[in-house]
Amino acid sequence: MVYFGTKLSDAKEYGSIQKMYKPNDDSGILDDAYTPSGSANLAEPAITVTHADGNKSLDLHYISHAVAKIDDNVSMLTVTLKDPAYPFEVKLYYKTFFKEDVTEQWSVITHNEKGVVTLNKFASANLNFKADGFWLKQYHGNWATEMRPEESKLTHGIKTIDSKLGTRANLYEPSTFIISMDKPATEDEGKVLLGSLEWSGNFRVDFELSPEPSNYLRLIAGINNAAAEYHLKAGEEFATPALVYTYSDHGTGDASRKLHSWARKYKIVDGEGTRLTLLNNWESTYFDFNEPKLAQLFKDTKKLGVDMFLLDDGWFGNNHPRNGDNAGLGDWQENKLKLPNGISSLVKEAQANGVKFGIWIEPEMVNPASDLYKAHPDWVIKESGRPEKYFRNQLVLDLTNPKVQDFVFGVVDNLFTKNPQLAYLKWDCNAVIYNAYSPYLKKDQSHLYTDYVRGLYKVLDRVRAKYPKVPLMLCSGGGGRVDYGALKYFTEYWPSDNTDPLERVFIQWEYSYFFPAIASSNHVTDWGKQPIKFKIDVAMMGKMGFDIVVGKLNEQELAYCHEALKNYDALKDIIWHGDQYRLQSPWGNDVASLMYVDAAKSKAVVFNYLVNNRYNAGTKAPIRFKGLDPQKKYSVKEINLYPGTGSVLEGKLVYKGDFLMNVGINPEVNSYHTSVVLQLDAVN
Ligand code: GLA
């Protein structure tokens, strides 16, 4: 049993916790830390196996545990379990981050049987909870509708969230979840667990509420075992991905901040570093560009005042030019008609304009209309006996095959070797796996979903070994792959192709429960009818970028961009590395508000967005700030003022932290001021 909750003052008393709980459980193993199947356990198991002799019964007994201190903040608890009847072992790993209060949990399975053991199910973690009721917040969506939340009270039986898509696995639902205990948690109150599987493929998270009167919640999370049994040879290790989770008894705000600090320090590449602002050309040109157009875009990048130009899809393919999404994927050579002088001349030209250059790739994929498909049909995941079924006109390469891994690594490596000044990659993944068949795996087809992701991580390991710091954006036709398994290799993610800022307030809000602002790529685009001020103010709550035609901005709009970029430069350190407080939700309110505060509590920024266009919608009451020092005095000023407009706040505002947190400030958001950004500075 694992105890979550307030730290006890006498450590010896932890030993007495278990005997206080009396689950109504005849099997005696319902609250085990990793429930096997085929023996006494008749509830949903964490692990199911078929032994080498065909027997399906597994029993796991505690053998030993060890705690290793990795450093002052991180320690690793390992618990060894063994089957008394078979040479079969599971090690449970709990990597704990004390300051951040975060745990990563996974398991490693091995055996020494005479022959191959089949793993039919192999969860990462199996947690048990006891409370007066459980509420699950989960997410669903699709392209452009990512991260739609739903919260419901868990009833008896099993509730499952899962994916079987193979790649782009989070397209319909991600593995991220929130469980409230006793009552639905709020931002500042309630017992709450935030979790997410660190895996970019099929996942399954079961929430099993055992029957009255025990009412235990059993959470079992891991790789989805659907069509995925794994054959394990004697002596071979099967390591599951980690489930990362954090618990708070002070609501979701505290839990999110813990996850953010952990992610920045321990998971996301360069999470405590800096990021590049950029101009992307996807929506301004789509596939239709050439060198003169790009030369103009480099100038526009400079004129706008951002750090980098990002060239999106459409730059490659010759026999099958990438002029639409139906050809060219796999042929990663510059298109000679569009780019006769190649990428290296683009990098130079961008630099001559004083900006960096980044580029889009989607190296895991292939269009049937490509040289690659013709040269290597055996590199493609498909059922040879069935008609091909495409997703966005493309198929997925078989990353279980080491030759394909070399190829995909080569796509990245060639770009950087030929263009050492290349500053950034956007790595996309736009298809799911239909007709899952790997020519490479032959008889082990059920390994495909697991080994695909392992193959992807092998490639990304090689990329990071050679290019440890280069910024990489994780994109998957929008947010189809936002998870901490992948984010270990990336500096940022693309939340959604939906960049309508009103939609983005909601989408970014929901991602913010699990992922820190520094990793959220928020672009200002033509989506949405709102003015540029609203768009930029929304993009600012993360890593800002643009995908607009700069030439279409009028003088005032361009001046606003410059003003906002100047403010962003001054505040980005707080947004990226500070503590985030969600003040007022966009759901059910006219106005969404959230703020970021620096570690010293001396500087903060508050974003307020109108999310309801009905008559008289706006802030009728003050918004109470959070995370400030009650004793410090702060000046409050509106920033990001559109040229020619004054602040909605009258006079010079200086208030103590306790006033700002108990009474608050009315940011006067309404249909005339649809977004209001406030800067707080501690004053003496
Ligand atoms: C995906 C991405 C977009 C863009 C296109 C290019 O849909 O999400 O941002 O890069 O691919 O084809």
Automatic annotation (TrEMBL):
The keyword Hydrolase applies. Its EC number is 3.2.1.22. This is Alpha-galactosidase. Belongs to the glycosyl hydrolase. It catalyses: Hydrolysis of terminal, non-reducing alpha-D-galactose residues in alpha-D-galactosides, including galactose oligosaccharides, galactomannans and galactolipids. InterPro entries: Aldolase_TIM (IPR013785), Alpga-gal_N_sf (IPR038417), Alpha-glycosidase_related (IPR050985), GH (IPR017853), Glyco_hydro_27/36_CS (IPR000111), Glyco_hydro_36 (IPR002252), Glyco_hydro_36_C (IPR031705), Glyco_hydro_36_N (IPR031704). Coiled coil: none annotated. The keyword DNA damage does not apply. GO terms for biological process: carbohydrate catabolic process. The active site is at D428, D497. Pfam families: Glyco_hydro_36C, Glyco_hydro_36N, Melibiase. Residues 1-233 form the Glycosyl hydrolase family 36 N-terminal domain. It comes from Mucilaginibacter terrigena. Residues 592-678 form the Glycosyl hydrolase family 36 C-terminal domain. CDD domains: GH36. Substrate binds at W143, D312, D313, R392, K426, W427, D428, C429, N430, C475, D497. It comes from the Bacteria. GO terms for molecular function: alpha-galactosidase activity. Keywords: Glycosidase, Hydrolase.
